[in-house]
Design brief:
By secondary structure, the chain is α/β, with parallel strands linked by helices. Helices cover 53% and strands 16% of the residues. A hairpin with a 2-residue loop joins strand 3 and strand 4.
């Protein structure tokens, strides 16, 4: 089965990697590919700085769900907003819900409870594919935090379920933990550059995922590869090209020893960050995943 077909069957696809390796661009390209394949996709961003709209050529989300194209929507989602909406849902009396949300005890709990914010984000994704919100998606593509923070996010529901035990919060955490643990419903895609530090962090993240959620990622994407060096003597204008490609080749070889699973390779493209770059990467990613 082509990997893109397999990913299209998931309910949640989490894209992560070291900061600066292009994970947001890859998350957006993957979301577009899944939407073009007929899936209803929600692309979730949780970075408050909001950058996905620049790639997609839309207005900033500011927390709203923005329709990007056929089958594809995008949303910048903040954990506190999700938590407060859960309170309003469980406490239908408006004035009481507002008092709870405004109370120092609640704010301290929301900010400090281990795994609570992370579970809220993943729970939002699960409820979206279940159709429990006004926007229904078949699959949520999550542009997740960098490296170890993502491993902690994916492990958070099980941690919270163990800490809380029963009750509504414990049941919710356990349901989300079951989603993350199910390889048929949830996939993790790791992005890296073919450079020493990103490849090292990727190796550590693969080990973290195996330890915390019991399985490796589904795909590794080596991004921003310099074109193959055509050979011959390098002059001052092309020395950087030759040197950077040599670094890429060395680290791709190391990556091949560290990671035996599916891998895609995306070239460095001479395009500014925006819709044109996203479209070009989408074309290359489609070929790689086919």
């Amino acid at each position: 089965m082509p990997l893109l077909t397999a990913l299209a069957k998931r309910q949640l696809v989490v894209v992560t990697g070291k900061g600066g390796v292009g994970k947001s661009t890859l998350a957006a390209a993957l979301a577009r590919l899944l939407a073009e394949g007929g899936r209803r996709v929600l692309l979730l961003e949780i970075d408050p700085r909001e950058s996905l709209h620049q790639l997609l050529g839309t207005e900033p989300s500011a927390g709203a769900i923005i329709k990007v194209g056929p089958g594809l929507a995008m949303q910048n989602l903040q954990p506190r907003a999700v938590i407060e909406s859960l309170v309003r849902e469980k406490v239908p009396i408006g004035i009481v819900a507002r008092k709870i949300v405004a109370s120092p005890v609640f704010q301290h709990f929301a900010d400090g409870a281990p795994g609570f914010k992370e579970m809220a984000i993943l729970g939002y994704a699960l409820r979206t594919v279940k159709g429990e919100y006004h926007h229904k998606a078949d699959v949520v593509v999550l542009d997740a935090p960098a490296t170890g923070h993502s491993a902690s996010m994916l492990a958070a529901p099980l941690l919270l379920a163990d800490l809380v035990g029963g009750g509504q919060l414990g049941d919710m955490a356990r349901t989300v933990a079951e989603l993350v643990a199910d390889a048929e419903r949830c996939s993790v895609v790791l992005a890296t550059l073919a450079e020493e530090m990103p490849v090292q962090e990727l190796a550590e993240l693969v080990a973290l995922l195996k330890d915390r959620i019991g399985r490796p990622p589904e795909l590794v994407v080596a991004n921003g590869l310099y074109p193959e060096w055509p050979g011959g003597a390098a002059d001052p204008r092309t020395a950087l090209w030759k040197d950077r490609r040599a670094v890429n080749d060395r680290e791709l070889a190391r990556l091949g020893k560290l990671w035996k699973g599916p891998r895609a390779e995306i070239p460095l493209l001479p395009l500014d960050r925006g819709p044109e770059l996203l479209a070009a990467i989408e074309v290359r990613l489609a070929k790689e995943l086919a």
